Each structure stands twice: as C-alpha cells, then as structure tokens.
Amino acid sequence: VQLVESGGGSVQTGGSLRLSCTPSPFTYSSYRLGWFRQAPGNEREGVASVDANGRKIYTDSVKGRFTISSGNPLNTLYLQMNSLNPEDTAMYYCAARPAVFGASLDSRDYDYWGHGTQVTVSS
Questions:
Q1: DSSP states of 39-58 as a string?
Q2: Pairing with 98, which of 27, 69, 77, 81 sits 20 to 30 Å away (CA)?
Q3: How far apart are the first and last CA of the chain?
Q4: How many CB atoms lie within 10 A of CB 41?
Q5: Burial of 11 (0-12, 13-18, 19+ CB in 10 A)
Q6: Which helix (H) or strand (E) holds 79?
C-alpha cells in the first residue's frame, strides 16, 4: 500500500488548509486511517483517525478545528484544518492499517505511512 499526501502549505494564523491522502492499492472493506504530525524536536503525534465504520477520534488540541473524512469505498482521505495557529506547524503524515476496525491515535497501530506534507502557520 502506498500513501501519497498533498495539500500542505503556508498560511497565516486563522487560515485553513485541506490535506489529502490517496492510498493505492486499497480495496479493503475494513481499515483504520489516521493523520499524524511531527514538529522538529517533537515526537510524532496522532491528530485524527477514522475507521471504515466511520468512527472518528481527534487529539484534544484539534477538536472543533480539524475534521477527518473519507469515502467508502475509500478513494481519498482528507483532513480539513481550520483556525490554524503556529502550534499546528509540522510535517503531516497519512497512515493506514487494513483489515481492522477501530480508530487510533497510536502510531503503533498503523502499518503504512506516507512521506508527509509540510504545514507552516505564521503569526
């Protein structure tokens, strides 16, 4: 499975971005997908996750601002990011584990990773 992210960029505080992740090949009826981020000097952090049943979870710092979504059958995974602030600056990664149910923000619960897309928020 290959994951390709896109949609990163530079915005000012309060701006919005939408990240996309296209997994291929991916014909599983059950799966777990997630978005993670890593800022320089920090550990990788789970941001949002969704499973094939549509269950979604978010880390506390993005609740109410970020929305994860995916189609079923899966074509593309999205992360809509609103009200961005400088603390959101990081490399964002898409991750997947096929043939499971249940969302997770733990990186150990994923098998496949994209190469990342940079998000930079300036004040």
A1: -TTS--EEEEEEETT--EEE
A2: 81
A3: 37
A4: 5
A5: middle
A6: strand 77-81
